[in-house]
Amino acid sequence: MARRKKLNAAEMEQVFQRFAEDNPDPVGELMSVNTFTFLVAVVLSAQATDEGVNKATRGLFQAADTPEKMLALGEDKVREHIRTIGLYRNKAKNVIALSRDLVEKHDSQVPDNREALEALPGVGRKTANVVLNNCFGQPTIAIDTHLFRLANRVGLAPGKTVLAVEQGLLKRVPKAYMLHAHHWLILHGRYICKARKPECERCLISDLCLFPGKSI
After folding, report:
1. If pLDDT is split at 50, 70 and 90, which confidence band does 3 have?
2. The dihedral of CA 81, 87, 89, 94: what is its sign?
3. Which of 208, 201, 213, 187 is nearest to 23 (CA)?
4. If both were cysteines, with which of 20, 69, 146, 203 could 64 make a disulfide (CB 3.0 to 4.6 Å apart)?
5. 26 φψ region: left (φ > 0), alpha (ψ -120 to 50), beta (else)
6. Domain spanning 9-26+141-202 has what CATH number?
């Protein structure tokens, strides 16, 4: 008999009900002081850990917490602040370029729509989704390695591509839980359902999970 690949609607409800009961108000781990610095932090977080980004941005955001201040700081000094982060040279260029675009095209405000966000240097669909969800309360889901793994491993929304998984989750996550789904899944993937050694004994949804390799 072929292995079932997807949880059914009742099981999806159970998954997110348990997450909600365990952690009613989940928050991300990137540090910021306003919407602009959050956008910068997310851009810097590509191929880097939140912990590493937070260490680098502590001084950066003290020096520049607006697009105008970031432009005044300049690319060389931005680069010095973030040199411990992967791809820091290119990221410094993007931070300066997106700051300039915000000043010149958006009255120094971070836009609250996907098209405008994705037009900013260094901002792709994933970054836009994170900003729309965290800063503007929009029910988006940003697919990182954790969410992609969970969607396929657990049976939440299997898919071969990032976009397929995102679209699957948007269809399958119960609407009542959509706003926080992104955070619950990232935290679950980061600390419980790890890539190499998932801690199934600590998992809230181990009885629902369809992963054939689970240890419970």
Report:
1. low
2. negative
3. 187
4. 69
5. beta
6. 1.10.1670.10
* 199 vs 215: CA distance, rounded Å: 8
Write out pLDDT tens, residues 13-27: 999 999 999 999 998
pTM: 0.91
| Tokens found for residue 66 | 């607006």
The CATH 1.10.1670.10 domain(s) of the chain lie at 9-26+141-202
Q: Which CATH number fits domain 35-136: 3.40.630.30, 3.30.420.10, 1.10.340.30, 1.10.3720.10?
A: 1.10.340.30
One of 65, 93, 105, 144 is an active-site residue; which one?
144
Give per-residue pLDDT as tens, 93-108: 999 999 999 999 999 9
User: Coil, helix or strand for 175?
Assistant: helix
Q: What type of residue is 178?
A: M
**Is 25 a residue of the active site?**
no
Q: What are phi and psi of 63, to 5 degrees?
A: -85, -30
Cα–Cα nearest to 186, from 6, 53, 33, 23: 23
Catalytic residue, chosen from 69, 107, 126, 214, is: 126
